[in-house]
Predict the 3D structure of the following.
Amino acid sequence: MNVKRIFGTILTILGIIGLIYAGYGFLKHAVQTRELIVVSIIGLIFFVSGISLVKNTKDES
């Protein structure tokens, strides 16, 4: 098992969850705007870094 690939998958999933939470909060106006902006930025960073980590890791068995 490749630890980088697993960590990239976890980061990607966390990023998706953060982006969904921020989108839902924007639609429902449930949380303050500043918190939603911070969550969406962190979610985007996690998502992009996770995708790039999975993409750039070579399969070595």
User: Anything to note?
Assistant: The two ends are 8 Å apart (CA to CA). Residues 3-51 form one domain.
